[in-house]
Please model this.
Amino acid sequence: GNSPSSISSTAPGFSTDENVMETQNDSNSLSSSISPPPLAPAPAPLIMNESDLRMPDSKAEKLLNEKQQIEIQKQKIEAMLKDLEEKKEEINQYFLNLSSKICFISLQINNKLCGDILIKLYHDAAPLTCEYFRSICIGAREFNYENSTFDYLMLNTFIKGGEVSIYTPDGKR
Model:
């Protein structure tokens, strides 16, 4: 029995039936091979819509949305205000033009109120005179035609009245 095949050795590189048995796996030991584990199936792709990305309960998102809505409303209101200002200016210009052409005076005859009379002013022909007369009629000066007498009142023609006085350009007697 000293044949080379029957000599038992535990030296590395030599293989015997005993060595083979010791290195084999039993059911409770780990695999001695370095091979990778079997491949698992790949997970399904994650498909999300934009609506899935939103967080409807997020306070920050709600506040951001409110801020955007406020900015939109603010721009609409600013545009409306601009339109209103332009319309107001147009109306003011109309009345400015109209007011430079007409004037009202309340009239009493024998201490009995007869109503207002409309006086048409020729503003294009005499703008300073018309503006001066109008300012007296509306009480914009320190004096007015209150308790003044009219000598003549001729419909659709002319009015002559009031005290005959000399006034300086600043409106003082």
In short: The chain is about 35% helix and 15% strand. The radius of gyration is 54 Å. Residues 5-9 have pLDDT under 50 and may be disordered. Helices lie at 17-23, 50-53, 59-99, 127-137.
